[in-house]
Amino acid sequence: VKLVESGGGSVQPGGSLRLSCVGSGFDFSRTGMSWFRRAPGKERVFVATMGVTGATWNYADNVKGRFTISRDNAKNSVYLQMNNLTPDDTAMYYCKGVGLDYWGQGTQVTVSS
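The structure corresponding to this sequence follows.
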């Protein structure tokens, strides 16, 4: 199993970023996909999840209305569109297959003025 996240960067508060994750080594189209993040000095926490067809999803309360998860099974990819970012969103972001105990290297998001 391999997961490769990308798209992170440094933005000002109120800005946007779109994260991408490409998965391989497992049946991506039959695996729910999730995003997690780990802020400095804190534990890794759930951000968003999406079912295998994209018809179901769920978000952490503190990102609802600002973040949107999506997937493209033809590209073995899951995305996280992040809008109206705040300094509290600063973290390393990771994707993960539901039920799979594998993590990628993550992609860093820094929100600062």
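The two ends are 37 Å apart (CA to CA).
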